[in-house]
Amino acid sequence: VSVVDTGIENSHSEFSGKDITGASYVAGKSYIDDVHGHGSHVAGIIAANKNGTASTPGMRGVAYGVTRILSMRIGNDAGSISLTDSNWASMIGSERTSSVDFSNNSWGSSTVEIDEINSTWVNNNIPNTASAYQTGVSNDVVYVWATGNNYGADPSYQSGLPDVVDNIESGWVAVMSVNNDKKETNYTQRCGDAAAWCVAAPGGGDTQSTEGIYSVKSSGGYKRLSGTSMAAPHVTGMLALIKDRFSASLTN
User: Fold this and answer.
1) Residue 200 burial (CB count, 10 A)
2) CA 13/CA 252 separation, integer angstroms
3) Which of 4, 119, 120, 175 could pair with 72 as two cysteines, CB 3.0-4.6 Å apart?
4) pTM of the entire predicted model
């Protein structure tokens, strides 16, 4: 499983015994350092250990048996992401050559939705990235994406890319958010033009402090966060469980 995010704080007890490798695309920052905390929270939802006791309840990941995590750091200490087309394509290639099965992407554009771009935009802005994703999907990698938190009827362009890039839909999953009552949250961007490859998963309620998803805090302990960023790793964890159960009979 790959976590494309702000890094993973591998010193947290929830990741004890996990083989965390990876790469950083942020100058001077390590892939096993996570000042921001977003990546560690996401990774915890996927794969935090099942190690709670009555005195230290903690939490556990959807696929707590995952032993290998690839941390691909693209976010700086403030959570900002700045990827060139070539760097983005290089990262995708590194995931593929590292034999990643499922790539969790709890990030995306906060300003550009999929209904606002077309294939010409892709060719002018991210041609190498699009080609790298085509190669990844053809090599059986599945990419899981958060739809975004801007209340929109359509998701971010990243989660909707199969609408404008050929031959990647079979390896794409966009994830919108529902709360603990299985109701659509106010913040979530909907499936929209990505409906054919979109699902809903728990992302925490609109009141984050009390209804957010409980997971790893990078500096130790735990915290609650809400967002489609939390919904996507629930799906990535589920895919890992299915892979573990049916690896002899099903491709990714």
Assistant:
1) 22
2) 30
3) 4
4) 0.97
